[in-house]
Specification:
2 strands; single chain; two-stranded antiparallel sheet; 386 residues; Glycosyltransferase; mainly alpha
């Protein structure tokens, strides 16, 4: 892996942000070549993720942080779009890690603001198509997380993003969605949960809307709540996201329903302490079911292993839902994370889509870092690296 310091890499974003263009994720992924890297941009080359990579004896926060920073920079610089699985995930997780890793580079937020400007120039009907709803939702969510954990106050740009997000909301309360690339670009339910978290995380935004005279915006928020309260999730992965959204927008679930979802999530924990994303949905229920054949053909289909994405996400959601850091079930999950970081700093998660890039190892690394921090188990960074 050719390395640049995260901050030198991110200085390049401001230049490339002005070149931003919107490319639908499903179409983009369809034309990429299966090369020998996962991310590549200028001097950044990150090798493909592999299940065979040796595991580390001790957690390296530095390597994990470097992977996240460089992966986000490389995606933004090469693809010039907001993607759920990389720079979108970066912005919805990295701000919360500021207490351990220091403030994220400002250039990342600048890239999102440039993306917002481009999206504002689009007609609303076009914004409802392809991956644009997902891009806008993750953009708003990322800016909301920045306000909550970095600046500490609601920014006008975040308000603009949230208002634009709700301006393209469907009548049923969610957003248009492709179903081609689970788990992120897989269904409208996923998008609704992220939108709810964006609205509830932005400091004071929901209260501001409630006190305003903007009737249509108030109605949009209520439509979103109604959708999440009444729509039947397709699988337990969506139920996990609903539980996460309820930890921010706390009036979505009655107490007994919340406990039911907590118990359901805990029931998925494996004997080794981890969780496997493949146990959370039948192959046919991911999006339009177009990955069912691949998933059923995998050698470990009958007994899928624990992975970084689902183990990290499960711990995060359970912590935000009220379980204590010292809970023995979470402690088992933390031990799994401590034993399963790879030499590159990543935690392995096999893609649900193809066996080429395994982009899910990105969230599969971001979520474990946040989970470790939330359970007071994240080793401290060297002072020189902060």
């Amino acid at each position: 892996m050719k390395l640049l310091t995260p901050f030198l890499c991110l200085q390049r974003i401001s230049f490339f942000a002005v070149l931003f263009s919107i490319v639908p994720g499903c179409l983009l992924s369809g034309i990429l070549r299966a090369d020998d890297h996962q991310y590549k941009f200028e001097q950044i080359t990150i090798p493909k993720a592999s299940a065979d990579e040796p595991k580390r004896a001790d957690i390296s926060v530095e390597l994990a942080q470097q992977y996240l920073e460089q992966g986000s920079v490389a995606w933004s610089g090469e693809k010039k779009c907001v993607s759920c699985h990389t720079n979108g995930t970066y912005m919805v997780t990295r701000p919360a890690l500021s207490q351990s890793l220091g403030k994220p580079p400002e250039a990342t937020r600048e890239f999102f603001l440039t993306a917002l400007t481009k999206l504002q120039e689009e007609k609303h009907e076009r914004l409802k198509q392809a991956t644009r709803p997902a891009q806008l939702i993750y953009l708003a969510a990322g800016l909301a997380e920045w306000d909550a954990h970095v600046s500490g106050s609601l920014a006008q740009e975040t308000e603009t993003a949230l208002e634009l997000m709700f301006a393209i909301q469907s009548e049923n309360g969610t957003w248009g969605s492709l179903d081609c690339w689970p788990p992120f670009e897989s269904d409208a339910y996923h998008e609704a949960t992220v939108a709810a978290m964006a609205a509830a995380t932005a400091p004071g935004w929901l209260q501001k809307v409630a006190a305003s005279e903007n009737g249509p915006l108030k109605e949009s928020v209520e439509r979103l709540k109604s959708y999440l309260r009444t729509e039947n999730p397709a699988h337990d992965y969506s139920r996990t996201l609903l539980l996460w959204a309820n930890s921010r927008m706390t009036d979505l679930l009655p107490v007994e329903k919340k406990q039911e979802l907590v118990d359901r999530l805990l029931a998925h924990q494996r004997a080794d302490g981890g969780w496997s994303i493949r146990s959370f949905a039948a192959p046919e229920t991911w999006g339009g079911g177009n990955r069912a054949e691949k998933l059923k053909a995998e050698p470990e289909f009958a007994d899928p292993p624990s992975d970084g994405h689902m183990t990290g996400l499960s711990i995060i959601v359970l912590r935000e839902s009220g379980l204590e850091a010292k809970d023995e079930r979470l402690a088992k999950g933390i031990v799994w994370l401590q034993k399963n970081q790879q030499e590159s700093g990543r935690w392995w998660t096999r893609s649900l889509n193809t066996d080429s890039w395994h982009y899910i190892t990105y969230s599969g690394t971001a979520y474990p870092l946040l989970a470790l921090q939330m359970c007071d188990s994240l080793p401290k960074l060297a002072v020189a690296e902060r």
